[in-house]
Amino acid sequence: xxxxxxxxxxxxxxxxxxxxxxxxxxxxxxxxxxxxxxxxxxxxxxxxxxxxxxxxxxxxxxxxxxxxxxxxxxxxxxxxxxxxxxx
Length: 87
Prior knowledge:
The protein is mainly α. The protein contains three helices and no strands.
C-alpha cells in the first residue's frame, strides 16, 4: 500500500454503503465514524484486509477510534508504524 488513495479503495470495499452512497465518494477526509460508515466489525475487517492484502499489521494499541475517524487518520498511523517495520 503506497498511498491514502489505495487505503480509501480498501476501506471502501469493506464498509456497508447506504442507499445513494458509493465507494467512489470516499476520500481521505471522509468522516468514517461520524457518518456511521464503520463499526467495530468493519474496523476489524479493515485491519484484517490491511494485514492480508498489504502486509501491514496494526498492533492492538493502534486499533482505536482516533485512527479510524478518517482514512487520512488511519494512513498517518500506518506511516508512523512504517518506521517500526511493517509486518
